[in-house]
Every structure is written in C-alpha cells, then in structure tokens.
C-alpha cells in the first residue's frame, strides 16, 4: 500500500518504508519528521514573538503578509529569523512608540524592512558560530593524532605548527 509522505511534498511511497508520526501522518523517516517539527517550532516562535511585539493575543492572527514574508525568508532558517527579531526588538518597540502607522500592515511592512536589512548579519554570525563549534569539537583529537604521528616520524612540525616544545613533553 502506498502512502503520502509529507516531507516529500506528497510523494507516495510504500507504507513499510515510511515513518508514521504521532500526528498520524507519514514521513520518509523519523529524522525527517523531527526536522519538520523543529522547523515548525521555530516558525511558531517567530510568529508568537511578532504577535507579542504588536500587542496581539495568542489566538489572534497577524496580517497574511507576515506569513508570506516568513516563508520567503525561510531559506535562512527560522532560527535565524527569530534571532533577527530578538536583536531588533528594541527597534520595533521604539518604532511603535514614536512613529504613526496607518494600520498593522503598515507597521509590519516597516518591521519587515528592518528584518530584511539585518538578517544576513545574523545568518553570517550563525554560520561563524557553527564553524567555530565544529572546529572546537574536532581540533584537539586531530591535533593529538598529528603530534603522535609526527613524533613517530621524527618530525618537528605538522601543517605549519612548531612541535618542538610539545614533542619533548611526550618523550
């Protein structure tokens, strides 16, 4: 029997090869379901944050242009959009207090322009943090292996690193 996989835009696959989520929908695998859940969580956080800034209650909907905007910038990741919102929170609050907007859509358009102008900076910072985390996690082990191999070969440098002080400590 074929079932529709929600993470594959409705592509049909054999039921035995799919993961049935608690919401009774089928996904290609459990990790795909978890990825969709994570994405939805961040998307909801973005909307809730903007609702709070605009003074909306939880059950009230923002203008549809907000949802289209968020989807348009989803390629950056909803966590990056959320970080951009948090960084610019004071700017949003200041604008609501000092500027006169015709309606909520006008205010949201103003906020969207602010987000558009600062989202790339947040994206770069996230990328740099990820790169630093990866380097930090892998660096000590790899460096110790390089030192061990260099010591066995009688070398005093590995990839431009001076090992003369370190090799003496292991002898």
Query: What topology, given as strand order, has the largest sheet?
Result: 1-2
User: Whole-number radius of gyration?
Assistant: 25 Å
Percent of residues in β-strands: 5-15%
- Give the number of DSSP strands: 6
- List low-pLDDT spans: none
Termini separation (Å)?
65 Å
Question: How many individual helices?
Answer: 6
Mean pLDDT: 80
Q: Sheet with the most strands?
A: 2 strands, antiparallel
- Which term fits the overall shape? globular
What is the helix content?
55-70%
Order of helices and strands: EEEEHHHHHEEH
Look at the helices and sheets and give the structural class: mainly alpha
What does this entry look like structurally?
The chain is mainly α and 171 residues long. The protein is built from six helices and six strands, in the order ββββαααααββα. The protein has helices at residues 30-54, 64-72, 78-87, 89-98, 104-153, 164-170; strands at residues 2-5, 11-14, 19-20, 26-27, 157-158, 161-162. The protein is globular, with a radius of gyration of 25 Å. 12% of the residues are buried.
List keywords for this structure.
6 helices, two-stranded antiparallel sheet, two-stranded antiparallel ribbon, mainly alpha, 171 residues
Give the helices and strands, then pairings.
Elements: E1 2-5, E2 11-14, E3 19-20, E4 26-27, H1 30-54, H2 64-72, H3 78-87, H4 89-98, H5 104-153, E5 157-158, E6 161-162, H6 164-170
Antiparallel strand pairs: 1-2, 3-4, 5-6
Helix pairs in contact: 1-3, 3-5
